[in-house]
Amino acid sequence: DRTPRDGMVFKSYEEVLNFYKRYALRTGFGVCVKKSSFTKAGLCRRLLLVCNRWGNGKEDACYQARPTAKTNCQATVVARLWGDGMLHLTDVSLDHNHPLNPSAARFLRCYKTLPSGMSKDLVVRAARGECATSGGDVEAPPMFDDWGRLKIREGDVQAINCFFAEMQAKQPNFFYVMDFYVEGHLRSVLWADSRSREAYQYFSDAIWVDTTCLRSKFNVPLVLFLGVNHHGQLVLLGCGLLSDESTESFLWLFKAWLTCMKGRLPGAMITDESVAIKAAVREVFPKTRHRISDWHIVRSIAEKLGELPEYESIKVQMEAVIYGSLKDDQFETRWKNLINRFGLQDNEWIIFLYENRHLWVPSFLKDAFWAGLSVNHRESPGAFFDGSVSHETTLVSFLSNYMILVQYKYKMEQQDDFESLTSGRVLVSKFPMEEQISKLYTLNMFVKFQDELKSTLDCQVQQVSPSSFVVIDLAEQGTGLVTRKYEVVHCMETNRMECNCGLFQFSGIVCRHALSVLKWQQVYDIPPCYVLNRWRSDFKQLHALDNPLKDPLVSSNHVERYDHISLQCLRLVEIGMVSDDKYQHALKLISDMKRTLLDDNLCRELEQKMSPPERAIVVNGDSHAQPGSSEGGPAKKRRGRPPKKSKEISAESVSNQCGNKESLLVSSDVSQKGALHSSSTASNLGTHVRAHGVDDLMEEVNANEVSFESRYGVQSSHPNHYGDQLHPGHTLQVFLFSYTTR
Fold it and tell me: Does the keyword Zinc belong to this entry (predicted)?
């Protein structure tokens, strides 16, 4: 715990002072030693630490003439020496009467004072991890020994830099950010590759923040952002490295990740039971439904209550109360009976659980969709890296194997995509609803639906009212069978269907109880609103069609153009790699597009064919038909100078207009460089002329005719690279035409 409180114990004066300074530096204020006393043996008897704004300033006239920063702040910490030889904190007050500024606190004078024998250079080296920890002449200062920084080992800094450099070279859309603290030492890191950023666009309805490595004190303090894909499997949405489990660290991590995902909030979020995480989620994700993982709570029963004599009985009955309560009031009653029976009224952990019951008890969580995370709530969601990260794994080893581990996951997803699109489904019944789902869902999700359909054989339906039913489910428990009653509501007029077991809210699969009611009512098709698109085999294609990227306004900013085109292409990559046919077709389209974009002449021909017919450009009151837009088909290109009605422009004046120092003379000795320059200039001027049109050049493109060559008549044998020699006369003619039509 890094927050001062009454009862904390320290060994020495320096330990208390350093601890409180660390807290003050994180919080955003300075520290002063108001009083201190020592025994004859040199032990600290009493220590009083106050805020640097304690008091009212000096009373001298010369000081009163200037404004003072003192506000008589009463935030104090008192440490007293007890009989055990330790300093105990008493009278801790953490309330300030002035604003705090963590980002600027490092500039305060109290943090610039170094211990005796220390130099500025030594502190900076310690922050970078360059000081010797054993076998050397100097050691790291206590302030930087184990707090506020990543546990960097030899070679870790180089490994991080090389990893980020390699990822950026391979993936232009790779994102990473680092957090540096006092004296420039590394505190936190976040990164997400292009596949993770694109996957979040599809699977942002529910995410899980896995802090197992951080809580278990692994050598790699890894934090994972995970989602669920359309196969019901975990998908990576980002990775982070944190130096500690403080609220400040999680605030930075969540804000950085949200920036990486372009500010799009998740629908629901699952985290561990942590006060720091809870506060950070409430601030960064105010509209996101937060949930504490009940699996971690059940796992903590042994840690929190294992010393009680009736621990085994408490654990069994607590799990029964958690997972056996279908309604909120039912949980309230059964929980209170459990607490009174075992006398747990004063247990701090039990009080914490009850106060936050709306964040982890299943009966309180049916107001959001959880995408199958921790279904049945009794099993761990499972580590994403399948045991590849352990206590002994080093950061260098993890980063070197990161791409191998991630690529394996991507390969598994591609294999599941292929099987879902090509493999047949084995039906176990003749119900039309089974055939309905088999044609839509991925193979994994269809199997889960099929399990629920087969379990309807163990259910018995009793009608209570026209739209209300009670389903008696015969289920296994231990070595015997038990019967449980579930309430199902199904309104035929509105197709509203709800079961208090909550399986559809937790996993997106219609439960066996609702299926039993549908069969009893002789409804053989599942209502469309309960067939989720996110479990379909073609979900990514449907999502791309239903959520097109908005075309931004025409911008001259090359960075904005690059970002927009990159996002558009990433969506096509996800679709183009699904099958061999789509992959080959995507390569052909890329080849056509590349050939077209690299040749200015081809671009102009395409733009003319894409423009509406009979477009005319008026120059000096005269109307001239645009080339390629006259009746009877495309017009042939003119040779020589433009008609005499156009404004006569000499080659010398054109050269001056464009800033060329050399004259553009028609000669057979025109160099390749000059020809390319003229062609590029003509393309720019042509773009300026086309900007005055009122029609979108892409409006008349037929989406079904996706080949550039077949749609626009582009010949594959046309010269299409920069190295070709352009005819100098032709280049100059195009240049003059573009200028005169302006």
Answer: yes
